[in-house]
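Much of our argument rests on the idea that a fold can be written as discrete symbols. This step matters because it turns folding into a mapping between discrete strings. The record that follows shows the chain in one-letter code together with its fold in token form.
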Amino acid sequence: MNDQIKINWYRCRIDRAIMSQLMRTSNSRGFLQVLPQLTLFLGTGALAYAAFRHANATNWPTSVPLLLAALFVHGTLSNFLGSVGPVHELCHKTPFRSKALNEFFLKVFSFLSWTDYIAFRPSHVKHHQVTVHHDHDGEVVLPRHLDWEFVRFYVAILTINPKFAWRRITALGHAAGGRIADGELNGAWLERVMPADNLALRREHRRWACTVLLGQFALAAMFVALGHPFLILIFNFGTFYCPWFALLCGLPQHLGLSPNVPDFRLCCRTYTCGPLVSFLYWNMNYHVEHHMFPAVPFYHLPKLRAVIAADLPAAPHGLVATWREIAVILRRQKSEPLYAFVPVLPGDAGDRVGDTALEREAAGSLN
């Protein structure tokens, strides 16, 4: 397949001084995001372990519901640690002003979530360049139908999906051996964005896979040696169960929208939401704005939307309204498989691309 494609994306006009302010990164804003999220992971993990100890010390039948509830909350929040949250944004290198801090926390969150960020980064660069264009974007392929097989697969999102966990772990195992296999992303796609002749990237990929596997094994062995094997379920595998909320937040990004169009307003979806979703999801509900200007850090995306709102389609508010809109689209796709929802756009201002140096920088790649 030919990967050489240049798309002249439509981008909203924005004042140069305002764009310069929106692109400013901040170490303090970065810490205000990552430290509370890590605290939530550790805090809910500690509560789950306390519930386990309580169950051991009392009557299991009456204590199991409390333990399951604690694990449900822990898993639900932990699933925002990977590519649906911090790993994604840290790969953009925008949360912190310091490059070293971006890289450090990228490794921390990738380790905790078993995420192959080395493979995800070049994949995501390509995804931004050729968003949902057939034969070019292997990260998100449209149309995507929620058929019964898909629904059965995601019934497991309320508990644990062994197939997904096994694929992610075995993909890291293959990577540690210098091979590429299906995991969170399709193996054939990764072969394209990480070609075999890029020896430096392949070596880095292998080193990271070894780091995750050996590090997670060492952590689990320590828990066993200390007499606390239940911590393996909490800390080693905390991101492998209850991903329902993360998927509800993340799936709307492109679902039911138009492929092969040079306008992010037609192939990406923005929805507004409350502070909890915005925090956990790193403001990626502003997905049109993020794709249009990916160099704007996540904490400035609400301001960016306010600036360019007159040139954007209306956004549903809340997950319920968003999924109600998506459900209508999915029902129509059952009878019209190629149907794509086309939002109402503001008055035609004429196609244009980012034509100033600052706009081009704000719309630049992740490299």
Summary: The chain has a mean pLDDT of 91. The CA atoms of residues 25 and 357 lie 18 Å apart.
